[in-house]
Write a structure and sequence with these properties.
This protein is an alpha/beta fold and 238 residues long. Helix content is 40%, strand content 21%.
Amino acid sequence: MNSNNDILAAERARIKSEYARRDREITRDLYAPWEPAPIFMHTGRKRAASLLLLRAGLIPFNDDQCLEIGFGSMGWLPDLIMWGVRETDLHGIELNSERVDLVRQILPQADLRVGDAGSLPWDANMFRLVIASTVFTSILNNAVRRTVAREIVRVLAPGGALLWYDFAVNNPKNPQVRGVGRKELRELFPELRGEIKSVTLAPPLARFFAPRSWTIASLLEAIPVLRTHLLAVMVKPV
């Protein structure tokens, strides 16, 4: 029977291989920050996250240690700086070493590490805010999902929050991702309590309508059935 370390290693290798495939096959403009659709989606998720964090009284400020798991090419790190978090209080972990090297050039004072979230290299109860954004849907193994969730709870400080953003639905064109619905999200983090809401117009619709009409894209996003992601702020009890 495979050990937990073997399972983690196999899933890590699969995810890295999938990321390499995406880098080869997906055009740069699909997620480019100057394209209308990514701007539309980023604006919506940031607005929703700000609202939930405000309601929870957990907008991060100076001296709040913040961690992003799987920050990719920048992730939420710039948003944290805009909210008032100091660069020296930013932490992140990412599988792709090239992405880590790139972000280190932009944020040289942040604590950015190469690795996976199955064994986080930080002390327990350290972070006021942990961000997991489009991470779990790339993890197909249920045991690995549970392991990563336990690690997040371990490093999260009492009274601190997990900021979650991820697909709630499957992508029929990509079997390498699997959505996380509300029920599974609560099962992954049974110790945490908070608010979950659906957000983000389905990306194919956003890519079609946002360049043509921001108003139409916004009206469509108001229809729950057309939203594909969940955003949550879930708090660790004191």
